[in-house]
Amino acid sequence: MRKLMSAAAAALLISAAGVSGAHAQTAAPAAAAAETATPAKMALIARLDKAMNFDTMMSTMMGNMMPALIDAQRKAHPEITDAQVKTITDITVSVTQTYVPKMKAAMYQAYAETFTEDELKSIVDFYESPNGQAVLHKMPAVMQKAMPAITAMIPQMQADMMQQMCEKLKCPAQPAKAN
């Protein structure tokens, strides 16, 4: 059971990291990174947070990811019960909600260190515009459509990672599973 819960949590974290990591850019120039979180920048970042409705976005992302992740876990662990699925889902959502303020604080700091004030103004202007709002409102549908395919790749991706790691790290042979 512990292995099952660890696998579910790992899959969720990998998916979330993959979603956010897919948008990662190269490090900002040293001058921009050295800028502090000025009051003006923090005010812009707060506007961006409001325009992007970060809390709702996180809840929506969780809601969209959980069914696909649970489906993957059911395929990997057919013995999982509905009660266990509910427990895993409830705990995952609850723990994630407690971490949202910490994630936001880290994001605010990262935005302040990465973007100049002018860049933040442009980003905020976009997300407060009708087109920016359309992107935000349609992105959950994009993710909902993409997540089943992405999640279906996770077991093979994990197997490929394990194979390559074991080739490099000389893992001991695993005994064959009895059917």
In short:
Helix content is 82%, strand content 0%. The protein has 179 residues and is mainly alpha-helical.
Can you describe this structure?
- With 179 residues, the chain is an all-alpha fold.
- It has a domain of 124 residues.
- It is built from 7 helices and no strands.
- Helix 6 packs across helix 7.
- About 8% of the residues have low confidence.
Give the SSE layout.
Blueprint: H1 2-21, H2 30-34, H3 39-52, H4 54-76, H5 82-114, H6 117-128, H7 130-169
Helix pairs in contact: 1-4, 3-6, 4-5, 4-7, 6-7
List keywords for this structure.
179 residues; mainly alpha; 7 helices; 82% helix; elongated
Radius of gyration over all CA atoms, rounded? 20 Å
Structural class: mainly alpha
Q: What is the helix tally?
A: 7
Shape: elongated
Low-pLDDT stretches are 17-30
| SSE pattern | HHHHHHH
End-to-end separation in angstroms reads 20 Å
Number of strands: 0
The helical percent reads over 70%
Strand content: under 5%
The biggest beta sheet is recorded as: none
